Automatic annotation (TrEMBL), chain A:
GO terms for biological process: protein transport. It is a single-pass membrane protein; Single-pass type II membrane protein. The keyword Iron-sulfur does not apply. It is found in: Cell membrane. Belongs to the ExbD/TolR family. This is Biopolymer transporter ExbD. Keywords: Cell membrane, Membrane, Protein transport, Transmembrane, Transmembrane helix, Transport. One of its GO terms (cellular component) is plasma membrane. It holds the Pfam family ExbD. The chain crosses the membrane at residues 12-34. GO terms for molecular function: transmembrane transporter activity. The keyword Membrane applies.
From TrEMBL, chain B:
It is found in: Cell membrane. Keywords: Cell membrane, Membrane, Protein transport, Transmembrane, Transmembrane helix, Transport. One of its GO terms (molecular function) is transmembrane transporter activity. The keyword Cell inner membrane does not apply. One of its GO terms (biological process) is protein transport. Belongs to the ExbD/TolR family. This is Biopolymer transporter ExbD. InterPro entries: ExbD. GO terms for cellular component: plasma membrane. It is a single-pass membrane protein; Single-pass type II membrane protein.
Length: 159, 201
């Protein structure tokens, strides 16, 4: 029965790495699924102020974003240095907010439409005039829940 | 001639390719949740409805000027003192009779607010006020409310109000969620957040 006799070389067999790609692929798919690509590329400076009484905004499906701030350097020639509003991917004026909110509402599930929160991501150097205009516009269209998005930190760092 | 086997494709570099992709996604991933100060805007007022009359002593007027200076009831105040001043105002409890406030621990100054339920903080700003000054003030005022609510929650339920709110949002909260909601409502009633944001002048 020499057919079944083991060959007697004393070497340890090499550890098979054949399953390594599988493991890595698994991780890869996890990160691919979890990754949220930034859907808005910012065209404005957007350094948020600090605050320490912040609440988390984790129900993503309820949030719509309104950005405001000075146009970034590359757009300054075209749009000037005065702070502007950005909705989705475009610069917008105060009057566009109405349309934007209506569109956002329409794109959400019906039961969520009244619960939408507007996250105001406003650069800390922006004048309140613009912010007030946005707020006024939101009030007109009855989008009353707002969130002044801020970084968690001492307010002293704002100075 | 024996049939030759098709040569096996070497899969050794597969791991490298996958690693490369993996690292790319690792770097680009931002698992960020935004956070900020939640506020509710007042509904658009009807022109016909007269604004309710509020006694002057029940108003704590905060004006943020262009340069970030703060005027409280027309007197200058340092931002560091604002939180305490707002707390003192809200917690004053100077009212008598039906307006009396049993749980207030303030100085009961008859010239300051009657009752936290009557006390209104009015926040005003100019058009040229910087957003960061505004947020700083907003933060301090919200903090004043939160600290007072924490105090009452600790007295009544033995834990902080902010923790209760956090628990309420936590879907895995082990306790009774309905009871928690009632408790939060009760605290909110003791110190209702009456923070009005007037339109800029």
């Amino acid at each position: 029965m020499s057919k079944f006799k083991k060959k007697g070389d004393g070497d340890l067999p090499a550890i098979s790495t054949a399953s390594l790609p599988d493991i890595v692929f698994m991780l890869l798919f996890f990160f691919m699924v979890v990754t949220v690509m930034r859907d808005n590329s910012l065209k404005i400076a957007n350094e948020l102020p600090f605050a320490d009484q912040v609440e988390k905004l984790d129900k993503k499906e309820l949030v719509m974003y309104v950005y405001a701030g000075k146009p970034s350097e590359r757009y300054q020639k075209q749009y000037g240095t005065e702070a502007r509003i950005q909705l989705n991917d475009k610069f917008a004026s105060v009057n566009d907010i109405r349309k934007f909110v209506l569109e956002e509402r329409r794109s959400r599930r019906e039961e969520l439409q009244n619960k939408l929160i507007t996250a105001l991501k406003v650069d800390k150097e922006t004048n309140m005039g613009l912010v007030s205009d946005i707020k006024q516009e939101l009030r007109k269209i009855d989008a009353l829940k707002v969130n002044y998005t801020a970084r968690d930190g001492e307010v002293k760092m704002n100075q | 001639m024996g049939r030759r086997k098709a040569p096996e494709v070497n899969a050794g570099s597969m791991a490298d390719i996958a690693f490369l992709l993996l690292i790319f996604f690792l770097v680009t991933t931002t698992i960020e949740t935004d956070s900020g100060i939640n506020r509710k805007l007042p509904p658009m007022d009807d022109e016909k409805v007269e604004p309710p009359k509020i006694k002057e002593r029940n108003i704590f007027q905060v004006l943020v000027r262009d340069d970030g200076e703060i005027l409280v009831n027309e007197e200058q105040m340092d931002i560091a003192d604002l939180r305490e001043a707002a707390k003192k105002f809200l917690d004053n409890g100077g009212g008598k009779g039906s307006l009396a406030c049993e749980y207030c621990q303030g100085p009961r100054d008859p010239k300051s607010s009657d009752n936290p339920k009557k006390a209104v903080i009015s926040l005003q700003n100019n058009r040229k006020t910087k957003y960061k000054s505004y947020i700083t003030v907003q933060n301090e005022l919200v903090a004043a409310y939160n600290e007072l609510r924490n105090r009452e929650a600790k007295r009544l339920f033995g834990r902080e109000y902010t923790q209760m709110v956090k628990d309420f949002d936590n879907p895995d909260y082990p306790g009774n969620i309905d009871k928690l909601e009632e408790e939060i409502k009760l605290i909110k009633k003791l110190f209702p957040q009456k923070l009005s944001e007037a339109e800029p002048k």
